[in-house]
Amino acid sequence: MQAALGRIADRIRAAAGGEGLRLRGGGTKDFYGGPLAGEVLDLREYAGVVTYEPTELVITARCGTPLAELEAVLAARQQMIPFEPPHFGAGATLGGCVAAGLAGPRRAANGLYYGSVRDYVLGCSLMDGRGEALRFGGQVMKNVAGYDVSRLAAGSMGTLGVILEVSLKVLPLPVARATLRFAMDEPGAIARLNEWGGRPMPISASAWQAGELAVRLEGAQAAVDACCAKLGGTRVDEGEAARYWQGLREQADPFFAAPGALWRVSVPPTSAPLALDGRQLIEWGGALRWWKTDAVAGDVRASAKAVGGHATLFRGGDRASGVFTPLDPVLARLHRNVKAVFDPAGVFNRGRLYPEW
Amino acid sequence: MGAEESILHHTESRVDPARQRAVAEALRAFMPAHAVLYREEETRPFECDGLSAYRQRPMVVALPETEEQVVRVLRTCHSMGVPVVPRGAGTGLSGGALPLAEGVLLGMAKFNRILSVDAHARTARVQPGVRNAAISEAAAAHKLYYAPDPSSQIACSIGGNIAENSGGLHCLKYGLTVHNVLRVRGYTVEGDAVEFGSEALDAPGYDLLALSIGSEGMLAVTVEATVKLVPRPEVARVIMASFAQVETAGNAVADMIAAGIIPAGLEMMDRPATRAVEEFVHAGYDLDAAAILLCESDGTPEEVEEEIGRMKAVLSRSGATQLRVSESEAQRLKFWAGRKAAFPAVGRISPDYYCMDGTIPKKRLGEMLGFIAEMEKKYGLRCPNVFHAGDGNLHPLILYDANDPGQLHRTEEFAAEVLEKCVEVGGTITGEHGVGIEKINQMCVQFGAKEIEVFLALKRAFDPGGLLNPGKNIPTLHRCAEYGRMHVRGGKLPFADLPRF
Ligand SMILES: Cc1cc2nc3c(=O)[nH]c(=O)nc-3n(C[C@H](O)[C@H](O)[C@H](O)COP(=O)(O)OP(=O)(O)OC[C@H]3O[C@@H](n4cnc5c(N)ncnc54)[C@H](O)[C@@H]3O)c2cc1C
Q1: ipTM exceeds 0.90, yes or no
Q2: Are residues B74 and B140 both part of a single domain?
Q3: Hey, which of B94, B152, B386, B467 would you mutate to test ligand 1's pocket, going by the most ligand atoms within 8 Å of its Cβ?
Q4: What is the tens place of the pLDDT at every residue in B436-466?
Q5: Among the listed residues B268, B239, B265, the one whose alpha carbon sits nearest the alpha carbon of residue B251
Q6: Which of A143, A194, A198 is opposite residue B359, by nearest beta carbon?
Q7: pTM reported for the whole predicted model
């Protein structure tokens, strides 16, 4: 692995002054973010689980480790990556998962399983734009020494450096699960989900589309049983339920196949229905609204902004006006400064996060 | 180690009277006289935080009441080149809010309003000076609460919690401050408005919210935050488990996790700690046990019943000699009251105590306890232990008498050895109290020169002039060279190219 590390460093040093490098794991998220630019730096050879201690609830692995392999290693010990990262293809790697910062259906769970990618990142090592390997955070749950660079790396779209190695907090698999379905309109679903979120119920995922709300419960057997009794609805067969949640996580659900650009609209969970034309799927207790729409970017962004949220052009559409919501001037300055700390020459993933850098 | 570098002994620097007058006058141009303090008797109360061995009177204390005043204090100080040190409730244990002799102490205590509680969205908008416990009190009517519960929660402010990424007794299950704050609004040192995070579950661009949480007030001044509220569990019960050996108690912690159980709280105290506590609060602890574990389950009544059963089985198998389960909410609170009062209780049995905060992998708990016992002998000082056992966060409390210079020196050496041992076993020098000024030397042991350079550059990215709480958290490389004990990776000595003095 030392040799692989050396090759990565050599590529980075050689890239200074050139067209830059495009960091790539399995390439399953090539569609996400700004246009692809630079020579591909394939990171798949830097792979493997470094340490896994089930009783510490921590796994450390190299960036090229396939996500599927990592999940299998954990499942063998009845543990899991809590945030259900989407793979978007067979080759998804840990590095790409952390760099993209995307979480799946369990993101807005009530209680123990709550949290996004960064919430479970405990430490990482990064290779910066000078080819220096740096280590931040660690392998323990609580660590406030220095600034929290490892969480900053989550969702940085590979613009800060090569995420070489990551330590993730993991959790035991839930003992029991159940999925319930309800016929409900959009305002009703938003109201119910927020109401239930304020009660001690083991809700671990939710999805509303086309007049139907699905809710997944996960936790102790007694808690799941009691909640099923309390909520009513129609209990969904476990096999079908598993396929449904998997379909949402991987965007294989028929909703995503409909024509039109796919927008990811992230809003406060209680926000009233957005007035856009198209089809909609709501996740995360109301906080994530997927839109299949031909609306112009300005309109989608404005309706997100009006309720205190933001919109990302996730797939397709006219990408000329950028993919992510533009930053205000002060935040834009801070972003450029932070980028310059790690990658002053702009070697990594140019334009992938924001067009200017 | 020179006097200035010492952890527990600090020499105060003098304030320049002419400069002091000029700065106070500039601030009084837009703030009432009672909000700008500079006389010795007025600034004395601000001379230290919870790390009282370090004392320094600030040049001027500014106590703004409005956001506009905060901005103008920042802009004025920035234009005059005066450093600013933010302060919340001053309960910090690492000297994060230690004033500077040439600086303005920016007290945020008057920002003490809860702006709104949105029960439906399960959030609260608060000003930074709001006490941690006050948020849960305000949310209680909706059966909601703010989860991170530091033992200092009746006094510490949410602004301080954000700056330190504070933890609590229940963060094993419910997370730290970073997992429970959605949005922070504030100002850069230049007085530019910034907002990190949002009331949605994410925000565009880099996660500057995560970066700013735990940044010890060095990147921006917080003026408002939105925190997440979570439903109050219907019931909670705690098991008090006794162990004949501390190592057995340590192993029981790992056994619990291995059994797939994440307790709502999992705390450990050794006998010297339970003895001190019992005299003070009569929590009902088993004083014959070498160590006790407090293990909590919360949720629905059915869930708790089921989980308490599983927990008891694990604890018995792991060698617990006695198990007591709280039979009422009053008893549960009493069990916790003892744990929460551990620091003040220890404060009563010794003229002074020094609290450490390292975190280690749980599997090294037994080894670490053995090491601490050895250090007690080596330095001739007692050291009761209180642990957030579930996440491996240790609070060994070294008892000493500050009036005895020999003891003071031995305490410092003792503490340094324990922190460095934490790094050696794969842990960290601070789990929740922060680096501040206190553990700044140990940062050189935990990190290499390159990481420290990145930290310093990140500081400059937000504060090019180095005027917001300078000198805390991140050591200069010269300081590391001077300290002499360094992070060694791959056999190479870092800072090899720096001059040594
Ligand atoms: C008895 C006792 C028990 C404790 N128990 C725990 C515990 O269980 N868990 C735990 O994590 N900690 C604990 N602490 C430590 C302390 O209470 C926490 O670190 C707390 O978060 C500090 O809050 P404060 O308001 O007192 O902040 P201060 O001490 O005033 O300041 C702390 C830091 O925050 C910065 N700051 C404050 N307000 C702002 C603002 N508005 N904007 C920017 N920066 C700001 C300061 O500059 C400083 O760096 C304990 C302390 C004591 C004395």
Answers
A1: yes
A2: no
A3: B152
A4: 999 999 999 999 999 999 999 999 999 999 9
A5: B268
A6: A143
A7: 0.96
